[in-house]
Amino acid sequence: MGKGILLDDDNDLMVLNGSLVIGDSEMQETALIIQMSQGELKHDPILGPDLIQLKKSNVSKFDIEKRLRIHLARDGKDYGAIKESLKTNLR
79 and which of 14, 67, 69, 86 could share a cystine (Cβ 3.0–4.6 Å)? Predict the structure, then answer.
């Protein structure tokens, strides 16, 4: 788990009493990566699964998971651990 500056529901910096809020940011980082398209991040223009491209295409769940695994791994994140964490938090 990584510590970082937290974002609110609108992806704006979370500020409390004039200070930025710090906490576990791994899930927020993951969400931002999933939403990205390639070329959006200056220091890593390849990062971004471009899931919007798949919206009207006929791709399998496997293809989507593969794309997510690749892009999350590029940022040092473990797809399996994140998926398990989501399952645990939904219970």
Answer: 69
Q: 18, exposed or middle or buried, with CB in 10 Å at 0-12, 13-18, 19+?
A: exposed
- CA within 13 Å, CB half, 33: 23
For 1-91, where are the E strands, in sequence order?
Answer: 3-5, 15-16, 19-20, 22-24
Q: 37: closest CA among 54, 28, 50, 46?
A: 50
pTM of the predicted protein model: 0.84
Which pLDDT value is given to residue 54?
85
Q: pLDDT at position 72, please?
A: 96
State the Cα torsion 34-83-89-60 to the nearest 10°.
Answer: 70
